[in-house]
Amino acid sequence: MPRSDTATLFAEGTVGTLRLIVYLTLAVAVMVLDHRGQYLQVLRHTASLAVEPVYRLAAFPSRLAQATRTAVATQDQLASENRELREQLLLAQARLRRLDTLVAQNARLKSLLEAQENLGLHVQFARLVNVDLDPFRHRVVLDVGEQQGITVGQPVIDATGVMGQIVEVLPGTSIAMLVTDPTHAVPVVVERTGLRTIAYGSGLIDRLELPNIPISGDVRIGDRLLTSGLGGRFPAGFPVGEIQSISTDASGMFAAALAVPSAALDRSSEVLLLRDQPQPYGPPLPEPMSGPPADLAGPGPAGTQPGEPPSP
Amino acid sequence: MNRHRLQLWLFAGSFAFAFLLQLMPLPQLLLPLKPWWVGLTMVYWAIEAPERTGLGFAFLLGLTGDALTGELLGEQSLRLLVLVFIVLRFRSRLRFFPVWQQALAVLALFLNDRVVILMVRGFAGEPTPPLGFWISPMVGMLAWPVVFLIVDDLRLRLRGSD
After folding, report:
1. Structurally, how many domains does chain A consist of?
2. Of A86, A132, A209, B69, whose CA is between 20 and 30 Å from A282?
3. Which of B63, B84, B89 to mutate to test the interface with A (most CBs of A within 10 A)?
4. Measured between CA atoms, how close is A281 to chain B, in angstroms?
5. Cα–Cα distance measured from residue B108 to residue B144, given in angstroms and rounded to the nearest whole number
6. Å between A31 CA and nearest CA of chain B
7. Whole-model pTM?
């Protein structure tokens, strides 16, 4: 590289300000374009052939560590874990028994109501690919993708509650946003009172924020939050969290509560993806115009409909 | 020729390794402590091999990084551009700093980088991240001597072996 003799410790060196400005403008232009039109999605989709193996590669050490831990776990540990699981199974079975009666009762009531649709839960099993995309954005990578029929917007749940939703689908993997992501919000209902509100992600893995509860609203510490089904993204009735503390917000106009998410957001390694999108939300579609055919209609009065041509 | 090729492999390999480290999972508590490995590698090569790490390279590397981890295409490009520009500007001085002084410079660079992120995310309308957001530059400073010594050692070895 040719070096001029005039180079000093404070010389401009090899980079000029002009080139910096050009590249900065380029970067900003790319960001604006992407923010407006979500082009990153398209690019990542095309680049996913290269991206997915990198994810697997990055997750490999942790999988190895997990496998090693299982391999060298002592007999004692395994035995105690086994006992614990047995107890949990027993508990779960007892609950199931009770559920069975409820299901029977529900079926009876539903047949009385002549309800048509059955509420069977169509789910798909998925595993987490252990990759950290950004510590301050709560997103996880799942090992199922387009090839398994995953679509953007599918709710992700685990055994204990709602985890989040799919925000991006690549051919063999997909990315889910957790309910605690600062840009996530889920419509909830307080189980005890039926009060509707919205739970926002806080950016902390063990906390949800409910900043706008009416000051007169009946909310207590320990109340369980369920999805309300409004908004059309999450089906109704899945546990979201439990109220941990209540205070008033800065303006004093609303009560603000903090909740602990029900799902084991930082511990689950297997999740379920709900197949059925919930019922669409909003008023039903308008019925098609009905009435006599246009050629049968007599000559209209002076004020004919603006949309229709006057009949001959 | 062979030596030159080995150097290129080290150059490319160090960035690939940095990206893998960036993606590697950590326990929840340690997550905010993760330093910006790609940035550290970039600072090293900008100091030692400025003819390879121009602004164009930083831009493309940033796009690669965004395709891997990013939410917004171009964010890492902008961060790397700012980083590389400052390093190249002050390269002649940074080169002859002792390692601890370089580490302080890295701290300043990475704090500046956090400000750049805040600006970008602020414009994109995202909420301000929690305080833990500011820990990573400190860890970056502590990690700098390690990165510097390892990569420098490898580079000198490759240069020595003919």
Report:
1. 3
2. A209
3. B89
4. 27
5. 12
6. 5
7. 0.68
Same-domain pairing of A194 and A270:
yes
Does any domain span residue A134?
yes
Residues A104 and A137 in one domain: no
Task: Residue window 37-76, chain B: list those with CB within 8 Å of chain A.
Answer: 50-51, 54-56, 58-59, 62-63, 66-75
pLDDT, tens digit (0-9, with 9 covering 90-100), for A115-147 = 444 445 677 888 888 777 777 788 888 888 888
Task: For residue A128, give both structure tokens.
Answer: 């987490």
H/E run at residue A240: strand A239-248
Nearest chain B residue to A63, by CA: B25
Helices and strands in chain B: count of H runs, count of E runs: 7, 0
Least confident of A140-144, A152-156, A243-247, B70-74: B70-74
pLDDT band at A3 (very low <50, low <70, confident <90, very high): very low
Q: Tell me the nearest-neighbour CA distance from A277 into chain B, angstroms.
A: 25
- Considering only the beta carbons, identify the residue of A31, A135, A183 that sits closest to B126: A183
A292 belongs to a structural domain:
no
A28 neighbourhood in chain B, CB within 8 Å: 74, 78
Of A13, A31, A57, the CB nearest to B88: A13
Cβ atoms within 10 Å of A38's Cβ, excluding its own: 11
Query: pLDDT category, A113, cuts 50, 70, 90?
Result: low
Percent of chain B beyond pLDDT 90?
A: 41
Tokens of B35: 């330093």
Report yes or no: B29 at the A interface, CB cutoff 8 Å: no
Question: Of A188, A170, A151, which is closest to residue A53 (Cα–Cα)?
Answer: A170
ipTM here? 0.82
Which domain CATH number covers A130?
2.40.10.350
| pLDDT score for B143 | 92
Question: Which of A1, A31, A62 minimises the CB distance to B25?
Answer: A62
B17 inside 8 A of chain A by CB: no
- Give A98-140 as a DSSP string: HHHHHHHHHHHHHHHHT--S-----EEEEEEE---S-TTS-EE
Q: In terms of residues, how long is chain B?
A: 162
Q: Which domain holds residue A85?
A: 76-113
Residues A232 and A203 in one domain: yes
pLDDT band at A281 (very low <50, low <70, confident <90, very high): low
Say if residue A23 is in the same domain as residue A93: no
